[in-house]
Amino acid sequence: MTDQRHFEAIRDKLFQPDRGLYVVPIRHHSPACAWAVRQLIAEVQPKHVLIEGPTDFTRQIPLLLHPETKPPVAIVSLITQDNDTRLAAYYPFCAHSPEYIALVEGQKFGAQLSFIDLPAADKSFRNDMPQDQPILLSDDRHFNSGDYITALSKKIGCRDGFELWDHLFESRLGDPDWKTFLQDVCIYCAGIRSTTTAAEIERTGDAAREAHMSAALLDVLGNGPVVVVVGGFHAPALIDAVEAGKAKSPKTSDTADSYLIRYGFAAMDALTGYGAGLPQPGYYQELWQRAASADGTPAWRETATDLISGFAAKMRADGQAFSLPAQVEALRAAEALALLRGRPGAMRHDLIDGIRTSLVKGEVSRNEVWTERFLLYLRGNSLGDVPASAGSPPLVEDARRLARKHRLDISDSAERRRKLDIRRNDRHLEASRFLHAMTLLQSNFARLDIGPDYLTNTRTELLFEEWTYNWSPVVEGRLIELSALGDRVAAACLGYLTREVARLDDEGKRQDISALIELFGRGLLAGLGADLDPFLNRISDSIQNHGTFGSTARALQWLHFIAQSAGPMGAPDSLDLDGVRQAAYQRLIFLCDDLSATPDEEVRERLDAIRLVNELLRNDADECFDRALFDDAMNRVAQGNVPPQILGAVLAICVVAGLRDEDDLIIALQGRFNGASLDEPSRIGVLEGILHTVPALLWNKPALLDVVDDFLQALDEAAFLQILPHLRLAFTNLNPRETDRLADLLARRHGGRATDFTAVQTISEDDLQRGLAIEARLRDQMQADSLLDWLTAGANP
Amino acid sequence: MVDDIQRAPAETRYADELDRLVQADTDPKPKGWHLSPRAVRRFILGDAALDVSQKFFGDDPLVDRCIVSLMGQQGLMLVGEPGTAKSLLSELLSAAISGTSTLVVQGSAGVIEDHLRYGWNYAVLLAEGPSERALVPSPLLSAMRGGQIARIEELTRCAPEVQDAMISLMSEKTIAIPELGPGVEHRAAPGFNVIGTANLRDRGVHDMSSALKRRFNFETVLPIADAAFEKELVGKQVAERMADHPVAPQVGQDVLDVVVAVFRDLRTGTTAEGASVSVPNSVMSTAEAVNVAHAAVLEAAYLDGGPLTGGHIARQLRGVVFKDDPEDARKLRAYVEQIAKPRGKSSRVWSDFYKSAKASLSD
């Protein structure tokens, strides 16, 4: 077995006391590794402790070891890219990080402490990182994927690289034999490396980083014991370099600004998906503390018991209590699983499975609520602390930079005003977007005094926005709070919107399309543009899954409006507005078949929606939509048994589209006018539908008007009075010009002009006096009866 | 003779594998178990070294949890959509743990309490009076006596009062037989437990009471997540079903792709490209996909005498899956028009599917 010999050769060179060399292969945030590191340093008492981490972070070490610093903390580096955009890269530490322990222990023995990786600004860290992810300087994706991990997981019966790691190594936490432990980690990592090609190592930037680290190691080798703590994947490369006795350090880019910031388990856990060490840091912290207080292997049984009863207590406090037998069953299952899987005690996955086995009662989907609650509990909520001298985080810096870029004076906290010409001046539009973004974040930085409001569609004709702004400590505090959402203002806005959408879900408003659309609109105003893609998809999903006829029609209108907008509400081409618009249209066509079963209370809404769509299609000069689909659907609806108003509306559309003869409409009108009907108003339903959607038919198709006219003439006084309010309501759909036109036409039919029929009501001064007197008496009477509320109630609810 | 029956129980089908596992089993066994928990796991998830095939796919931790549940006081309840291999898993578990998977109660509206406890051989009862000889034990009673696993299929199809009988049975682990005299009862031997399967969402099923739920650990068997694997499985099962037929057209990979895509799209509500789809009420399980593909192959073989096309799939889809729910027909129409139609522009099979689906929908 050449592989085995190769692995053993590397293992045997890990510790070379005669040369003073101790290469320590670790996994980030692994308490078992941290334990071994602590033992090793105490035994070796090194002169130098070298750590895999950007070399420019060495100057942060005093701050990191400051008595006021409490992990979890992170060093964040602000990197300016070639295209002048800025990135933030993170290097998190928690109390059980091997790197942190190495620094703490190294300091105890007076060792020289330094980070030896390429500077944080070097591109090697970002070669393999998709643009849309937070950049991590302590990346260990190697541990989670790859052929070696997949094959070994399958062989041992673990579901993934995380479980495999826990199974093989975290289960040995507290092992006094640090040497064997680290040698095993080394062989494991050599296995991972052996399934990674040299080209891959080159491409991901690992080769350059390893060369830099090797050079730094060779520099100090020979001056007393050296402990070098690196991700296990890199250990073989360092050993090879020491064997060769030389390493060519690559040219390095400029350094970047870095800050020590408070960090939290929540933020750390969110980065797990990107390869930031082990998930649920709260759990590993717990293991670390138990190992520390036991000064050796933690009591597994006790740990499992405490975690499960701690979880039960937390759930009880949250109003999700579960019974004692369920706790017992969870613990029993977890322990039995650990036994089945060959572990010394119930570890993370056993506990998760135990909780799931015991608490789930019913059918669940992949994301099961008890598991998620337990994961959240294991994650923990610890927040670190940094000394006051540590500087400010990137989001704050970004907001300052943008404010200066948009010529907003933030040199002091005085309140200032700014008028922006958002329609004609692109720079002003940019500034407006920044101010909208800061408003979206509720930073208290700016408020809009005067300007168009596109979300409520008021005063959209305005060309200017007038803002008041001031930079205060309150703004800064709020931005630090929001730092978890993103490093830059745009990213934070996006994070904020994402959180709002999640909140909608929590409040059971998943289906609230208008709320989603409002968020999308606010994002557009804040200039998020192409980044809003997920929201657009979400809107599309909501429409597809939950859109009702009314809400889909409104959404369609709104999407159409945005697609045609330029300026503040303009959306970039990369947003597939057209696709979503088309999908909404398709959905609407699909929902047309619902019209036949329209409940009474929704008739109005649906009539409005039909008119909305009809107008949209009529004004659709660019032919974005396939009108024939809508007309066909209307025709299909007209064949069914539909409420009269809807029938009128769809028939009217069919007549205009040429799919139906006007006779059909006349038959429908007459059928309702003359039919047996339980309630009078429904007799004019069809007419109402026509007036709501295509009133022009009344004057373009004389036969139609004849029918209406005949019907009204045939009514006796009592029936007319009964139907009058409904007629009025129906005719309010006409605009004044249409009313005039119809009136004129009717007047001419009856021999005259519209003005001849205009009722002019004149009252004399006496009438007025008498009226006033009556009103005064009534008022007195009502006051006497204590009923004055009745008069004012409407005005003053 | 095995050849004379349609399907032998798991312990017969896999007798060789079970033998090898028993021989090699050195791990500790719970009382009453034929195999150690680790060997049970190997039986279900496969072991290359012992030439044991993998029989259940896609969720190894689920199998671990099931085994561990059966070691405890709680019963095991397998739930999930129809066609997700719940019964198969239940059969495999009991075959491996107890050496028999035949102690089954098949739940239905007609099941009465006697089927869960015991009945009588009335001829003997009339001739001799109540006696051990006249007693007809239920599969559950037999399992209790033998310290074995009893299986109850489709528990939620039993009437609530029959389900209730399970509650005391599960907690006391004993069945009293007062007819044989005071104090006569059968207490469960070690190794006894119950695996239930249930459908919680279908029409015509009863709710399970919380008291009964508390006595079971629930495991949801989910549809297969991996499309390529699902396709392989469908292909394999259709081939198995067609093995005895004299004529059988080739099932093209492209047609299988369409079957699996249609079922996955309509099951998950999202296409592979991310477009959303309205999910019908009909069950879109892998098992139904196999049924549709099988029916389509039969149609192509015996009625058309030609190769299997997307058109056969579409016609069978309407008949096999979308029975008579007009709402589902609408959803299928939307899918056909919005998803299948554009796909048809670049694929012959999809184009056939679209045409035939459209025709069958306008009937």
Could you walk me through the main structural features you see in this protein, from its secondary elements to its overall organization?
The complex is a heterodimer of chains A (797) and B (363). Chain A is α/β, with parallel strands linked by helices and 797 residues long. Chain A has six domains: 226 residues, no CATH class; 81 residues; 92 residues, no CATH class; 84 residues, no CATH class; 163 residues; 37 residues, no CATH class. Chain A contains 35 helices and twelve strands. In chain A, a hairpin with a 4-residue loop joins strand 1 and strand 2. Chain A is elongated and about 120 Å long. By secondary structure, chain B is an alpha/beta fold. Chain B folds into two domains: 219 residues, P-loop containing nucleotide triphosphate hydrolases (Rossmann fold), CATH 3.40.50.300; 135 residues. Chain B is elongated and about 75 Å long. The interface between A and B is large, with 33 and 38 residues.
Structural class, from secondary structure content of chain A? alpha/beta
Per the CATH scheme, the topology name of the largest domain in chain B is: Rossmann fold
Order of helices and strands of chain B: HHHHEHEHEHEHEHEEEHEHHHHHH
Biggest beta sheet attributes of chain A? 5 strands, mixed
Sheet with the most strands: spatial strand order of chain A: 1-2-8-3-6
The oligomeric state is heterodimer
CATH C-level class of the largest domain in chain B = Alpha Beta
Q: Report how far the terminal alpha carbons of chain B are from each other.
A: 48 Å
What structural class is derived from the secondary structure elements of chain B? alpha/beta
Helix residue percentage of chain B:
40-55%
User: How many separate domains of chain A?
Assistant: 6
Question: Per the principal axes of the C-alpha atoms, what is the gross shape of chain B?
Answer: elongated
Point out poorly predicted stretches of chain B: none
Main interface: chain pair and counts: A-B, 33 and 38 residues
Largest sheet composition of chain B: 5 strands, parallel
What would the principal axes of the Cα set say about the shape of chain A? Answer: elongated
